[in-house]
Design goal:
The protein is 32% helix and 23% strand. The protein is α+β, with helices and mostly antiparallel strands. It has a six-stranded antiparallel beta sheet, with helices on one face.
């Protein structure tokens, strides 16, 4: 069974595995940035994992899930989706990883995205 903490750790480790990513703490949440632009907001709720990613290709599909909504503060109209995964949700880590990958690729400069392709387009998403 995946716990909120294990999903949060999975997201954090995966986000930091991308080129030129830094972790910052604005507004009390974690933000993962590539070249000063956020591609993942990660909330710190104790009973659930809350995260926001930019999904320009799969956002509409993602919003069909019961634990997602458009990101507040006007970001939703720009393709940002917020997921709140509680203990009752059985969420695929592969799906979460693909969302994170889409968000990074949408935000990162083209040179960094090209580096991902040079190193092999498929990443190992298996959690440890």
């Amino acid at each position: 069974m995946k716990t909120s903490e294990s999903i949060r750790n999975f997201l954090r480790v995966l986000a930091l595995s991308y080129p030129d990513v830094v972790e910052e703490f604005p507004w009390g949440d974690r933000a993962f940035k590539v070249r000063k632009k956020v591609f993942l907001f990660l909330g710190e709720e104790p009973s659930a994992v809350t995260f926001s990613v930019k999904l320009p290709q799969t956002g509409e599909l993602a919003l069909g899930l019961p634990f997602t909504e458009p990101t507040h503060y006007g970001l939703g109209k720009h393709g940002w989706v917020t997921a709140r995964v509680g203990p009752e949700e059985d969420v695929s880590l592969d799906m979460i990883a693909s969302w994170l990958d889409e968000s990074y690729r949408a935000i990162a400069p083209k040179k960094l995205v090209a580096r991902l392709s040079e190193n092999g387009s498929s990443r190992d998403w298996s959690p440890t």
